[in-house]
Amino acid sequence: FWCLQDPPLMFSEEYQAAVLKEYHAVLDQKREEYVIGELIWNFADFMTEQGVTRVMGNKKGIFTRQRQPKAAAFLLKERYWKIANESISWMPPAPCSACLP
Protein backbone atom coordinates (compact mmCIF):
# COMPACT_ATOMS: atom_id res chain seq x y z
CA PHE A 1 0.00 0.00 0.00
CA TRP A 2 1.45 3.32 -1.12
CA CYS A 3 0.85 6.56 0.76
CA LEU A 4 1.65 9.92 -0.80
CA GLN A 5 2.17 12.93 1.42
CA ASP A 6 1.47 16.53 0.48
CA PRO A 7 3.90 18.17 0.72
CA PRO A 8 6.25 15.23 0.20
CA LEU A 9 8.41 14.12 3.12
CA MET A 10 11.95 15.41 2.61
CA PHE A 11 14.30 13.00 0.88
CA SER A 12 11.50 10.57 -0.01
CA GLU A 13 10.91 9.31 -3.54
CA GLU A 14 7.99 11.75 -3.88
CA TYR A 15 10.22 14.61 -2.71
CA GLN A 16 12.84 13.69 -5.31
CA ALA A 17 10.24 13.78 -8.10
CA ALA A 18 8.81 17.10 -6.85
CA VAL A 19 12.28 18.68 -6.78
CA LEU A 20 12.99 17.45 -10.31
CA LYS A 21 9.71 18.96 -11.55
CA GLU A 22 10.73 22.33 -10.08
CA TYR A 23 14.14 22.12 -11.73
CA HIS A 24 12.54 21.17 -15.03
CA ALA A 25 10.28 24.23 -14.96
CA VAL A 26 13.35 26.46 -14.68
CA LEU A 27 15.35 24.48 -17.25
CA ASP A 28 12.47 24.71 -19.73
CA GLN A 29 12.52 28.50 -19.46
CA LYS A 30 16.29 28.67 -19.81
CA ARG A 31 16.35 26.16 -22.67
CA GLU A 32 14.74 28.85 -24.82
CA GLU A 33 17.65 31.17 -24.01
CA TYR A 34 20.85 29.23 -23.52
CA VAL A 35 20.59 25.81 -21.85
CA ILE A 36 21.40 23.01 -24.27
CA GLY A 37 21.61 20.01 -21.98
CA GLU A 38 20.80 18.39 -18.65
CA LEU A 39 22.29 15.57 -16.64
CA ILE A 40 21.47 13.48 -13.62
CA TRP A 41 24.11 13.54 -10.90
CA ASN A 42 23.52 10.01 -9.54
CA PHE A 43 22.35 7.11 -11.69
CA ALA A 44 21.58 4.85 -8.73
CA ASP A 45 21.38 4.95 -4.95
CA PHE A 46 24.57 3.81 -3.23
CA MET A 47 25.68 2.70 0.20
CA THR A 48 27.52 5.10 2.48
CA GLU A 49 28.91 4.90 5.97
CA GLN A 50 26.17 4.95 8.59
CA GLY A 51 25.71 8.32 10.25
CA VAL A 52 23.10 10.84 11.28
CA THR A 53 23.14 12.46 7.83
CA ARG A 54 23.05 9.25 5.79
CA VAL A 55 20.84 6.54 7.22
CA MET A 56 20.88 3.37 5.11
CA GLY A 57 22.86 4.86 2.24
CA ASN A 58 22.60 7.72 -0.21
CA LYS A 59 19.25 7.88 -1.99
CA LYS A 60 19.93 10.50 -4.69
CA GLY A 61 19.80 8.06 -7.61
CA ILE A 62 16.95 7.62 -10.07
CA PHE A 63 17.32 3.85 -9.60
CA THR A 64 17.56 1.89 -6.35
CA ARG A 65 20.74 0.05 -5.37
CA GLN A 66 19.13 -3.04 -6.94
CA ARG A 67 18.63 -1.01 -10.18
CA GLN A 68 14.86 -0.79 -9.87
CA PRO A 69 13.44 2.45 -11.34
CA LYS A 70 12.17 5.04 -8.90
CA ALA A 71 9.45 7.62 -9.66
CA ALA A 72 12.18 9.99 -10.84
CA ALA A 73 13.25 7.53 -13.56
CA PHE A 74 9.76 7.49 -15.06
CA LEU A 75 9.51 11.27 -14.80
CA LEU A 76 12.82 11.67 -16.64
CA LYS A 77 11.91 9.11 -19.30
CA GLU A 78 8.73 11.05 -20.07
CA ARG A 79 10.58 14.37 -20.07
CA TYR A 80 13.43 13.29 -22.32
CA TRP A 81 11.10 11.63 -24.86
CA LYS A 82 9.08 14.85 -24.96
CA ILE A 83 12.21 16.96 -25.51
CA ALA A 84 13.47 14.57 -28.19
CA ASN A 85 10.16 14.68 -30.06
CA GLU A 86 10.04 18.48 -29.88
CA SER A 87 13.60 18.67 -31.20
CA ILE A 88 13.23 16.12 -33.99
CA SER A 89 13.41 18.77 -36.73
CA TRP A 90 16.61 20.28 -35.33
CA MET A 91 19.71 19.43 -37.30
CA PRO A 92 23.27 20.33 -36.34
CA PRO A 93 24.99 22.76 -38.67
CA ALA A 94 26.97 21.24 -41.52
CA PRO A 95 30.72 21.15 -40.85
CA CYS A 96 32.67 23.86 -42.60
CA SER A 97 34.94 22.72 -45.40
CA ALA A 98 37.97 24.14 -43.58
CA CYS A 99 37.32 21.71 -40.70
CA LEU A 100 37.22 18.58 -42.86
CA PRO A 101 40.39 16.49 -43.31
UniProtKB/TrEMBL annotation:
Q: Which residue ranges does the record assign to the Glycoside hydrolase family 2 catalytic domain?
A: 4-84
Please report the name of this protein according to its UniProt entry.
Answer: Glycoside hydrolase family 2 catalytic domain-containing protein
Which processes are annotated in GO (biological process)? carbohydrate metabolic process; glucuronoside catabolic process
Q: Which residues form a coiled coil?
A: none
Q: What is the lineage of its organism?
A: Eukaryota, Metazoa, Chordata, Craniata, Vertebrata
Per its UniProt record, what SUPFAM superfamilies does this chain match? (Trans)glycosidases
GO MF entry, a single one:
beta-glucuronidase activity
* A GO cellular component annotation in the UniProt record: extracellular space
Q: Name one Pfam family in it.
A: Glyco_hydro_2_C
The cross-references to PANTHER family, in alphabetical order and at most eight, read:
BETA-GLUCURONIDASE
The organism's superkingdom is given as Eukaryota
Q: Which family does it belong to?
A: Belongs to the glycosyl hydrolase 2 family.
Which InterPro entries is this protein grouped with? GH (IPR017853), Glyco_hydro_2_cat (IPR006103)
